[in-house]
Design a protein that fits this description.
With about 80 residues, the chain is mainly β. Helices cover about 0% and strands about 30% of the residues.
């Protein structure tokens, strides 16, 4: 598991939303840079990176809600394990 600017977009790596390819399934998403994971943290949870627009990215949550988040926030590639929970 690698995090930061040197990470490659592989499952389990944490990196800035700006460096994650579009359409990627992500989890443990920050709302403000340095705050720590706030969204998509529970068992089986995930979000999907939908668009990048300047300093913001759009993510789609499992509820169908879309949110604009700063592209400097961190997220982990992949869904949280134990989707059967």
């Amino acid at each position: 598991m690698v995090s930061g600017d040197s990470a490659s977009p592989e499952v389990g790596n944490a990196m800035k939303l700006a460096n994650i390819p579009l359409g990627t399934i992500i989890s443990c998403v920050e709302l403000r840079p340095g705050q720590g994971a706030v969204m998509a943290r529970s068992a089986g949870a995930f979000a999907q990176l939908m668009a990048k627009d300047g300093k913001f990215v759009t993510i789609k949550l499992p509820s169908g809600e879309t949110r604009l988040i700063l592209s400097t926030c961190m997220a982990t590639i992949g869904a949280v394990s134990n989707s059967d929970h």
